[in-house]
Amino acid sequence: MTDPSTPEAPSPNPPSAVPAPTAPDAFARAGLSRRRLLGTAGATGLVLGAAGAAVGRMTAPADATPLTSLGAGRAVFHGKHQPGIIDPPQARGHLAAFDLVPGAGRKEAAALLRRWSTTAERLMAGEPAPHDDTGVTLDAGPSSLTITFGFGRSFFDRTGLQKQRPDALEPLPDFSSDRLDKARSDGDLWVQIGANDALVAFHALRALQKDANGAARVRWQMNGFNRSPGATAHPMTTRNLMGQVDGTRNPKPSDPDFEQRVFVPADGEPAWMAHGSYVVVRRIRMLLDDWEKLSLAQQENVIGRRKSDGAPLSGGTETTEMDLEKTGKDGSYVIPVNAHARITRPDQNGGAAMLRRPFSYHDGFDADGTPDAGLLFICWQADPLRGFIPVQRKLDRGDALSPYIRHEASGLFAVPGGAAKGEYVGQRLLEG
Fold first, then answer.
1. What is the pLDDT of residues 64-100, one digit of tens each?
2. Do 253 and 35 contact (CB within 8 A), yes or no?
């Protein structure tokens, strides 16, 4: 699980109180649609003004909260990197893999990526889907929606592009904690959706599925969630379903070596992957019934950090460097040798590091009441052979957390760099 997740985005500023228009057709008289207003607010990142607050009061229950900057948040589709990698983690997420239908090849894949890119650009701007929009988000802003696309190893066989397949897309090795469901693993195409509103996230998933009709069909799909922005008194690192502060040592864009750890360089190979990244996706089930039987001290020894604030057991605050040599009165290490946080430290793995950006999940309960819950682990790196694989192999050899988790699905995907204005994602591969 490699100490996943990232700090949450700062809480949105509360909207200022504003007077409501007295007439219910304020928007109509102004010639301004609600959808258009939200798109404008998203583009500027400003809190919605009087008109937006008024409609919220006229159409919602009396105690409803008016729209705030949470709905107006807008991510950028075009750029050096695809969205959804270094953007703040959102409250809701969907992951999906698609397989090209029999007979579909490079031409059909290119047309699909063109449609998907057009749809993603519009939805991320808070606009309706380009065709057959379902109307689910007519009254919502962009809500920091991001949509990310990737290619699985099998995609290159289906499209006759084997010579363009990156060496980094070699199948992941088997690990001792793997109990993989092949039907929920891998895939030709991969899609990641994140948003701070559940309806916005679902709307994007449905639009992309409809776009795929006739070219690709869903292989598997998973739903996830994080803490909502503003749910805590101040911005802080999120917690996972085990209750642990999770993601303290995630690399940050401000780190001098962040780009080289996470993204393929401009002159990297293959050329079409310039500024792209490789993502490992794992559905990791947490055996919560077993975990919750442990005492607080036992849980902290498994992780190597205090549960209350995420500080290392060697002392200090959450961001204090671990003292791996510190011993207790009995002479044993304060941070056990098999503690998860000790094993996953980059300086204990030849500098190997990944950007973790996961979602938690809960898919109900088994017949015996066991919760089907855990982590949709998503990690980004310039090369999985130097990132995920060596760390996971080391965890395999003695991580104290291993008895309390089970890897049930897996995938590795090549995520190309961002599309320039007028391009679609993957164009340099499919038309190169």
1. 545 567 899 999 999 999 999 999 999 999 999 999 9
2. no
- Read off the tokens for 298: 């036992």
d(CA 396, CA 291): 19
Token pair listed for 119: 């749809």
In this structure, the strands spanning 92-100 and 216-225 are antiparallel
- Told to judge if 246 belongs to the known catalytic residues of this protein, a careful annotator would answer yes
- Of these residues, 246, 290, 396, 399, which one is catalytic? 246
* C-alpha closest to that of 318 among 414, 420, 250: 250
pTM: predicted TM-score of the whole model, two decimal places: 0.84
The residue whose two tokens read 């065709």 is: 131
Question: CB 269: neighbour CB atoms within 10 A?
Answer: 12
Nearest to 280 by CA among 430, 405, 180: 180
Task: Look at residue 34 in the predicted model and tell me its pLDDT.
Answer: 39
Q: How far is CA 213 from CA 156, 203, 216, 318, 403, in A?
A: 20, 16, 6, 47, 42
